[in-house]
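From the methods appendix. Each design record in this collection lists the tokenized structure first, followed by the designed amino acid sequence. Records were kept in a plain field format so they could be parsed without special tools. The example shown here is representative of the layout used throughout.

RECORD:
FOLD TOKENS (113 positions):
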């Protein structure tokens, strides 16, 4: 009986770890905004936006948004946006939109230096 309970608890813990594991964000674009080539889902950045409306605008015009982007979040890691202010409204960023590139060279043009 103890063995069955142990297996049951291990299964629940394993499923819990799987269910709460960090999911990789899905990019909003299918082509690299710099080169036009197919994207590599390992080469992504987060663009910080203030609201859902701005997130929609970024999704519709990734290349135009990147032209307005100020990559100023020097402390930001891969899971944080590269900017602190929304490129659409100028307000503080509260959520992130994931944009993918074809390679690290294209990605590096928009990461904080």
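DESIGN:
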């Amino acid at each position: 009986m103890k063995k069955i309970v142990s297996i049951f608890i291990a299964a629940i813990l394993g499923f819990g770890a799987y269910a709460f594991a960090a999911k990789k964000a899905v990019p909003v674009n299918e082509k690299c905004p710099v080169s036009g080539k197919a994207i590599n889902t390992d080469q992504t950045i987060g663009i910080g936006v203030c609201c859902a409306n701005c997130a929609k605008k970024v999704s519709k015009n990734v290349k135009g948004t990147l032209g307005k982007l100020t990559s100023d979040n020097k402390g930001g890691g891969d899971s944080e946006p590269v900017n602190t202010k929304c490129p659409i409204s100028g307000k503080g960023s509260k959520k992130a939109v994931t944009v993918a590139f074809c390679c690290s060279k294209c990605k590096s043009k928009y990461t904080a230096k």
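APPENDIX NOTE: The chain has a mean pLDDT of 84.
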